[in-house]
Amino acid sequence: MILIVRLVCLKKPVVLIVTLVLAMITGIRCQSFVQEPKSTNFQTAIFSPDKISVNGDILNGELKADRNYRFIYRIKTEREQKIWKDLSELTIAQVKIAKKQPLSGPRNPGEFNFKKYAQHKGVFYQVNLQSIDHLQKMQPKTISEKINVLRIHIINHLSYLPKWLKIHAQSLLVGYVPSSEKDFLKTLSILGIIHLFSLSGLHVLVILTFVRKLTSFFRIPVDWVDGSFLLILPCYGLLVGSKSGIWRAIILAMLAMILKKMQISISKLDLFSLTLLVCTLIYPFAMIEMGGQLSFLLSFTILYLYERTNLLLTTFKMNLVSLPLICYYTYQFNWLTIIVNIIFVPLFMMVILPITIVSAITVHWSFWDFVNKIFDQLYRFLDSIALNRQFGFITGQFPIALVLLLVIITLFYVESRNFWNRYLLSYLVVFWGCVFLNKFPLVGSVNLIDIGQGDSILITTPLNRKVVMIDVAGKVHFPTKPWAKHDSGNQVDFNTLPVLKSKGISHVDKLFLTHKDVDHIGNLETILTKFDVKEVNFGIGLENDPKIKKTIQKHPQIKFKNLHQGDRVKVGTLDFQILWPKKSGKGENSDSLTLLTKIQQKNWLFTGDLDIPSENKILKKYQFKVDYLKLGHHGSKTSTGDNLLQVTKPNVGLISAGINNRYGHPNQETLTRLKNHQVQYFNTAEYGMISWYYNFFNNEERLTTFLKGDLIEGNGTKK
């Protein structure tokens, strides 16, 4: 709003006309971006080495045909794998499509919305390729293709450097980071210094300053230099992948040169506003993505920063500006961010960046091996800080309205001279108010996290929140050849942790493991390593499982406890009654830990993968009714028998199953049983994460889903 008002008030009519024209074109361009194109078939595709990734027998990335597509392809042989790993040229090939579908979005709150991100880049579909044949080197024809080929050659040239110098050079000079180094970027992101290693205006300004001083030394006319920059800078923007931060600096520099030649004098704020419009014209979604928002916001902040502010206070204020956005997107911050920035920014400017530029010119110097060892120790230290949970603080996701309010408050604060004033006080009140609401919510919940084929259930209580989890999911890996083994990630990183962090949850009070199947406890080691878990409970006998034994030995700080029929586990206001197992077992389906609990006057039954014979044994000892039933074994016909449904009479059944899973869950026989007993059922495969909320102060309840909204509200049903 400030920028719009400022633009309307421009005194120069030429600039105002240009501004209005740019605004109109930007709106039209943005509209064309968001329109999904019709799907078409293609038989040839172009593959660029910097846009593909080889992960065992999986080849994926982005290809170009009639438009850009995400693709995935199963590599058939080790020889074929080597061909793709060694690919170093723009390549055209014949392809056969096995399946084409629109990109899928997130299925749980807090997850990264890759679908939206890809659509902003003009990518709407994913194709599964059945075959890729007749690979041939492609001769570039357009300027864009020639620039892309140059980019590939530069990346290949820089790959001769040792590891850390290679990462520096490729990321800082051409904006390329291989998929194998994503953990490095994650560490930098946690510490709040990712902006230094992502191509931004800082690097462009440094290069421009260096070139100007060099040309001044050789007495080259300024007009010649500026004219060359007007041609080179746009090409450089295309070369490095059209990052929003780069375009901001490039457009800013070019506009300053053009306005100078036209002898038009405007303020810094007007120049920034024009830059914003032109950048939005080039990439309409720059201002609704985290990278673009941080880049422009920090640049805008510099315009208002009190000029006599010292380095320490400047760093503090700049971090204060970015903090609301970081919490909105990542749900956390690191207590050491300001200290790391104060130390690392000068180190980066005076050491890392100059070394990077020199090393890019002299890639074969043996001296760089010694420098690389120093960087290796530096990043090991940074990694240890980033992974230390004591330095991290989970805030939860902030409401967008309060994020905007915090940003506005900081803009007033950065303009002030003093450290402590009413603006900082207001900022702290709003910021910690957001955190407090996330940490002490007014509602409790039961959530079936959509982790595909498996189980992971999150239960929370209101106010003085207690957190309970039942199972942590996992992926079943089938035997394969060594060269074909690939890292498929895990649901903890992609699904569970984003859900927990977005809610402001920083620890789990009780974790229940139902049985030993991988799709229930395969991610146990991951969550115990990456998250604070107070106690782990499981059915008696599971402690003898080799994997559980190893986990117990590795985490002595965590309490592990076995349970059997008749035990009770209290967590705050929750009281879990253990219905099964009755005796020590091997942790198989028939031994599944079965839990009955009352939440806000509603009975819940969680059965793991319990089979029908074991269900019947429970019913011989216990007679009870339930309101909500978590169906056993993902809706398999071996669980949730007629006897259980007849005795417990559930109102709603919940199923956790993967989309088009290989097991055919939920089984039609089970669904027929539910229908015969008049039990409504909802499946995560159809609805994404399913959540039941209840209010602490009244009897209101709500069953809602991430993909389709409310299902049950009060006594009404929506389906």
From TrEMBL:
Name of one Pfam family that matches: Lactamase_B
- The portions of this protein that span the membrane are 188-210, 269-288, 391-414, 420-438
Q: Does the keyword Cell division apply?
A: no
Q: Which GO terms describe its biological process?
A: establishment of competence for transformation
Q: Where in the cell is it found?
A: Cell membrane
Presence of keyword Nucleotidyltransferase: no
Q: How does it sit in the membrane?
A: Multi-pass membrane protein
GO CC, sorted alphabetically, is: plasma membrane
Among InterPro entries, the record links this protein to: ComA-like_MBL (IPR035681), ComEC_N (IPR004477), Competence_ComEC/Rec2 (IPR004797), Competence_DNA_uptake (IPR052159), Metallo-B-lactamas (IPR001279), RibonucZ/Hydroxyglut_hydro (IPR036866)
Metallo-beta-lactamase domain location is: 453-659
Q: What is this protein called?
A: Metallo-beta-lactamase domain-containing protein
